[in-house]
Every structure is written in structure tokens, then in C-alpha cells.
Design goal:
Chain lengths: ~350, ~350
DNA sequence: TTCGTTTACGAAAACGTTTGCGTTCGATAT
DNA sequence: ATATCGAACGCAAACGTTTTCGTAAACGAA
């Protein structure tokens, strides 16, 4: 597999390898006829430029590192898809690393990517307790987070307006006539999830209804966790007519438990999620939810990162995109008289 | 962001940078006391080795390229997840590229990864017509396919036994009493899909039942395609008691159409899929399906690739892993007398 | 002491590019 | 005729490592 180098084509073309380099890079310091000739020879020999050597001298790899909890997660894989396609269009490749929901691993792969000399890093952080220890790392390379940031870490980020999302979800349920709305959240060590809880609580206060929160002592917002805790919920006393879940994954877990306990959705309980992962649109699920504009967030994050790579000491930018409500079949309006029929 | 180099720590330590390199690489040609001292200085200065420079001289990047149709596809993202975690454990990072179901783009990103000097490539090919034109590319770097290969391209691959998968699915439906089984496949320009069709046809012949295939003129095996064609199917005359789908995605599309047309699953139609994507296990879906052992395939693919990187002219290996049937709720047994009640 | 051997380290080449600078050559202006 | 200048191209340094080779010091045996 002896690769063909610049020197090889230079020898064949009878020129110095600087000339070959210039022919390929589109430099003006070269004759039009020799350029044509050299390009033809490159083609014939099947020459492929060595990006590693190029990176070495240019001090730039054109690689973006992407750190996320698990690529095997509908929301994140959708986001990754958009990021990869758009980044490649901009001339960048993607190096993906799972943090596996582990703040320590998160830092480990961050250093690893630093050593790889990535030009920048896009990161969906695991929680907020890791922000502090990430400061030393993010100082070394342009970084943009996909997550809001309450601790004023001076970093760029793009995120959906989580607070507004749960707030409007609550308002929506209220407008349907629901007054007993329970919130199924996540332990709030993640910025995202504490904001979502906040939005719900604020809306309750504003609307004058009593908040009620399912205590979720697990750290993940996943389908099995949703299922497990919903089993507990349905087994005990409950009189809510609507449930707001911190994620679609949780909501889908709730669906299963509801099915097992013979409670119909939306017949007995209106259910609303957050994220709008693609599977929520599937007819057997058909979950009403708060959408995160994933493609917009992806391109915004890449743009923001590339800006920052070009101009490292530009002011930090924070983009909050608006969430939107997607109405499907998991919520229904109720009359006031219906309120008390549940056990 | 002036990075700290070997030279910098060498200067501080008062040694040559060759010595620093040896201290870090664990070479025996260095005194134990100086090693300790140098490592301490590296720690203090926050030195991070430059992988690019390392790759330059070692002629090896420790990067694996991964090419797949779309990372935003449950089967592929699950696979990617396992590949990334296992590869990293083996000291390799992953560079992911979408081919977006486009054979030309597939070749384009392959060349791109070649230029990146990846040590090897794992690829889920789009179709089989692209194999020919890929020969020149795969000759330049160790490659393993995740897909069976009928054209005897001399490459390594790991795949589930697709033929056996649909065969056993058909046998399963037969054992439940079904005699009118329709196959919902994909246009067979993909090796995977032609083998799946083959397995179905073989089983029909062996079992002595008449095969029946829904003509799928779309190239993708996706949820919307499944939905669209199932709409047609349910609108026209149909008397099958069971349907075998070439993928879970198709099957889920069928589910929606069935719902719209008032045909109950499995009441009126038994449905079975292929892949066992995670969402098929969700209670509202609960799809009986043929499982692909994704984690096993992932680690096998990585192992195979690393073997090949170490020993490029070792004989080609082809691993076929057995599919397994996962029984869930989308199939039911029928009596012979039931056979004719459908229109 | 003297010779040979081992140990620990330094000097420098090499990896494949990009690019600043110098040089040559032809054309134009003086 | 010479001086000026721009175009086209070659030379060589540089990027940050790894590794071969050389060598000085240390050490043991004769």
C-alpha cells in the first residue's frame, strides 16, 4: 500500500514538488499549461493528497469532534446526522465519541480529541456538574455546547428554549381543560432538565394550579426509566388527568406502563412529551410533544463553531431557538365535570 | 492557543526531546528516575501529545472510517454505537460519514477517508451495483463490509444470515398455520435484500405454498415507503393472513396503514419484521421480528478490521452470524378454517 | 590499568505537505 | 543597449513527533 506522494508526481512531471502543490491548491503562481499537465498526471497516477501531512504544516485538521452521551439515542443521532452532512459541506469531517452518560469519560474523550488536534468541538454535555471541570479543557479549543448553560461558563451554545417549552406544554394542557397536571422529569443535575422543570413550575404558578412532580431518582431520561417509574405511579394513588414528560423517551415508557395498567391514552390520561424524536410520529405512538428544531440547531452549531475557529476571540454567542408544539393524538380536551372520575 | 510541544517540556526538563518521547512511550532505554521526573513535568505543564505529528511519522492514524447510508437510522446508529465504544477500547477513533443512500457519494467519502489516512474502513454499502466501482478503492485500505456479498468481491465482511432469516420467519408463520403469506421487500439491487427475498421464496417452495411479493419500486426500506405501499396494498384486493417485511421500518409503516384501514394486527393480519431495531420492542408496536445481533456484529467487524490492519495480506474472512426470532405480539396462530374469511 | 559491555541519553533524519524567498527568463520601458 | 519588472518555478525550512545510530559514562572482568 505504498501511497503515491507529491514527490512521485513531481518526478514524473519533471517539476519540483512545490509546483505540484501549487497546481493542486489553485495558486495563481503557476502557468496554466503546466497546471493542466500536472493535474492530468495526478489523475493518471491516482494521487490522493495526504491530509495528515497537510494538517501538520497548516496547523489545522478540518476535523470537528462531536461528544455526546450515546449516538444510539434518537434525538442525538438525528442531530448528528444533520451535523455530519452540513459540516462535510463546509469541508469538515466528524470524529464522534460517546461519553456514555459518564462525566469522567466525557472529559477523557475531550482530551483525546484535543490530542487529535480537532479544530473544534461540539458537545452535548451529560450534566451541569461537569461544567466546572471542563473549563480547563474548553479553554484550549473552540467549543460549542448544545445545551443551555446556567452557570455562565463563557462558552458558545445553541439550545432550544427549554423553559418556554414546558411552560407552553403546560399552558396547552390547561387550555384543553386540564387542571391536575403531573410533571414527570429527571433529576435536575442537567441544565436542560432543571429548566424544563422550572418552566412547568412557573406555568403552574401563573395558571394557579397545584404542581405535582414525580420523583425521578435516576439520572437518565430513557424509555426503561420512564416505564419503571410509571409502573410505580400507576400502582399507587393518582388522580391527574394529564402528564407532562421531560422527554419523548420517558413518555413512551409511560405509554407501556399505562397499557399494562389498563389506563387509556388519551382517554384516561393526556400525555405530552419533549424532543419530538422521529418515532413519536409513528401512528401506534402518535405522541403530542414539544419539538426541538434539530436541523436548525445542527447547522447553527456548526456555523457558530466555524465562526469561532476563524475568529477565536470573537464574543461568545448564545442562540436559543423556539420550541414548537406538535399536536398529535395523545392529548384530549376534558370537561370540568370529568375531573374527578379518576381514582 | 499555542500548544505545548515535546520541545517545550524537553527544554524545561533539560533533556533532548528524544528522551521525553521515550519517557512517554514507555521505552526501556531510559533511566527510571528521569522518566518519573519528565512525566511529572509533562503533567505540570499540561502537555498533550500531538497525534497528527505522531501519525505522520508512524504512518498510522489509529482512526477507523465508518461509512453508512444514514447515521439517523435506528439499525445503523445502534451498530455505530457499539462500534465506537469497542473501537475506542482498542485505541481507535471513529470518523463517520453518511453516504445518504447515494453510491456516488459513497465513493466520494471513501476517497475522502483515504486522504485522511484512516487505518481502515468499515462500511455498510448502499447497494451491490456500487461494488464494482469500489474495487479500486478497497484495494487501497483494509476494508470490512457489514453486508453479505454475492459478487465474490475479495473483501472481508460480517453479516447476519439474511437468507436464513426470512426463511425461518416464513417457517415460523407456516407453523402458526399461515398459508397465504405475502412478502414485502425492497428492490433487490442490494445484496442484503435479494438474499432476504431468496430466503422467503425458498421457504415457500419447500413448504409448498404460493409465494406472493409486493412490488416495491422504491430503493429504500424506510418507514414512509412502507406506509405508502401498504396503503396501496390495503386499498386493493388482498387475502393474505400474514405479511413478512424486509425490515422493521417497513413493518412499522405497514402498521400505520393497517390502522387507517381498520385491519387489526395481529387480529386480521400477522406481521413480522427484520432487524429488531430498539423501537420494535416498544409496547405500542411490539413487533415480532428477526433479530440481527448488532453488538456481536460490531465487535466482530472491528476485530476483523484490526486483524487486517496488522496483517494486510491475511486471507479474507467472512463471518455470517445467525439471526434469531424474537416473538412479540404482532403474530398469532390461525386455524385452517379461518383462512378464507378475509376479502 | 585496559578492554569490552551495557546503560542512558543526544543528534539528526524522516514522515508529506505548504509557503516564503530566491532565481531565472522573457517582455517591456527607457 | 541596459534597467525594470512580473511571471513561473525551484530551494529549503517548518510543522511535532518517532526512531536509528552514535557516543559518553559507568561498570565489570581480565
Amino acid at each position: 500500500m505504498g501511497m503515491i506522494t507529491l514527490k512521485d508526481v513531481a518526478k514524473v512531471a519533471g517539476v519540483s514538488y512545490a509546483t505540484v502543490s501549487r497546481a493542486l491548491s489553485g495558486s495563481p503562481e503557476i502557468g496554466e499549461d503546466t497546471r493542466k499537465r500536472i493535474l492530468k498526471i495526478c489523475e493518471e497516477m491516482g494521487y490522493t493528497p495526504n491530509s495528515v501531512a497537510r494538517s501538520m504544516v497548516m496547523k489545522r485538521t478540518n476535523i470537528i469532534g462531536l461528544i455526546l452521551a450515546s449516538i444510539d439515542n434518537p434525538f442525538m443521532s438525528e442531530l448528528t446526522n444533520h451535523i455530519e452532512i452540513y459540516a462535510r459541506k463546509c469541508g469538515y469531517n466528524l470524529m464522534v465519541c460517546n461519553s456514555s452518560y459518564d462525566p469522567n469519560l466525557e472529559k477523557e474523550v475531550f482530551s483525546l480529541l484535543l490530542g487529535r488536534q480537532v479544530d473544534g468541538i461540539i458537545m452535548i454535555p451529560v450534566g451541569n456538574e461537569s461544567y466546572d471541570s471542563l473549563k480547563a479543557l474548553t479553554a484550549q479549543v473552540p467549543t460549542v455546547f448544545i445545551s443551555e448553560n446556567m452557570q455562565d461558563l463563557p462558552e458558545n451554545y445553541v439550545a432550544v428554549d427549554n423553559r418556554r417549552g414546558t411552560e407552553s406544554a403546560t399552558e396547552y394542557l390547561y387550555s384543553l381543560g386540564h387542571r391536575k397536571i403531573v410533571y414527570f422529569g429527571c433529576r435536575t443535575h442537567s441544565v436542560t432538565h432543571s429548566l424544563r422543570l422550572e418552566g412547568y413550575l412557573d406555568a403552574c404558578k401563573k395558571l394557579g394550579i397545584a404542581p405535582s412532580v414525580i420523583h425521578n431518582h435516576y439520572s437518565r431520561s430513557s424509555y426503561p426509566v420512564g416505564n419503571l417509574l410509571a409502573e410505580e405511579y400507576f400502582s399507587g394513588p393518582h388522580d391527574h388527568t394529564a402528564m407532562l414528560c421531560a422527554s419523548d423517551a420517558l413518555a413512551i415508557g409511560v405509554m407501556q406502563a399505562a397499557y399494562n395498567h389498563g389506563v387509556s391514552i388519551p382517554g384516561d390520561l393526556s400525555l405530552i412529551g419533549f424532543d419530538n424524536i422521529s418515532f413519536s410520529a409513528l401512528p401506534p405512538i402518535d405522541l403530542t410533544t414539544i419539538n426541538q428544531p434539530k436541523q436548525q440547531m445542527a447547522t447553527e452549531a456548526v456555523d457558530m463553531l466555524l465562526d469561532r475557529i476563524k475568529n477565536p476571540d470573537s464574543p461568545h454567542r448564545r442562540v436559543i431557538v423556539p420550541p414548537t408544539l406538535v399536536e398529535r393524538k395523545s392529548c384530549r380536551p376534558i370537561r370540568a365535570s370529568e375531573e374527578e372520575i379518576h381514582v
